[in-house]
From TrEMBL:
Protein name stated in the entry: VTT domain-containing protein
Position of the signal peptide: none
Domain VTT stretches: 65-183
Subcellular location, principal: membrane
Entry membrane topology: Multi-pass membrane protein
Keywords: Cell membrane, Membrane, Transmembrane, Transmembrane helix
Organism per entry: Gossypium raimondii
Length: 205
């Protein structure tokens, strides 16, 4: 099999990305880094804080690192309206970045992973007929892991604008719920270390 310079570059970049994910997951104190990041946003960025928080979703989502800490932090730092807007935009930007990566240099890797998700085959067929609705439903009812779903959807024919809009709308409920939880936390450390004083009533809400 002949390799072109372009394919070699894509494979190299993909291997570097995988190495970065493994390194981040197994060697770096991710929760501490995110907490320090939120402290920095809170103390030093002022009105730029919500924007920086939204942009921070991009590398986390691309590296398949759960971004729920940022979502909770957005609620804690900025309150429900501003935190929700920042987190909602950030989650959508992150999902879009992962989608573009999977559709370009990471396409061959994503295709090789499809065999691990046989239930996705029927989803891919349905997307051909009604892409927007299926993506919206997948975001509302997460049958597949969120971060992996970004990449799996990248190899379907759904247009990126439909994907982004459906993802934005479909992720709103869970984003709103997590931001609300963030507004009830008493200390930033609770963002990464559980919520022992979180009442049953608030959990149900």
């Amino acid at each position: 099999m002949a390799f072109t310079w372009g394919s070699s570059l894509r494979i190299t970049l993909l291997l570097l990305l995988i190495a970065a994910i493994v390194f981040a997951c197994f060697t770096l104190p991710v929760e501490k880094i995110l907490k320090d990041f939120l402290l920095w946003v809170d103390k030093d960025l002022g009105p730029w804080g919500p924007l920086v928080l939204a942009v921070a979703y991009i590398p986390l989502t691309v590296l398949a690192v759960p971004a729920s800490v940022l979502t909770l932090g957005g609620g804690y730092l900025f309150g429900l309206p501003v935190g929700f807007v920042a987190d909602s935009i950030g989650a959508t930007l992150g999902a879009g970045a992962a989608f573009l990566l999977g559709r370009t240099i990471g396409r061959s890797f994503v295709v090789s992973k499809l065999k691990d998700y046989p239930q996705f085959r029927s989803v891919a067929l349905a997307i051909r007929r009604s892409g927007f609705k299926i993506v919206l439903l997948l975001r509302l009812v997460p049958l597949l892991p969120f971060n992996m779903l970004n990449y799996l959807l990248s190899v379907t024919p759904v247009p990126i604008l439909e994907y982004m809009l459906a993802s934005w709308l479909g992720m709103m409920p869970i984003t709103l719920a997590l931001v609300y939880v963030g507004t009830t936390l008493k200390d930033l450390s609770d963002v990464t270390h559980g919520w022992s004083e979180f009442s049953t009533t608030r959990w149900w809400f």
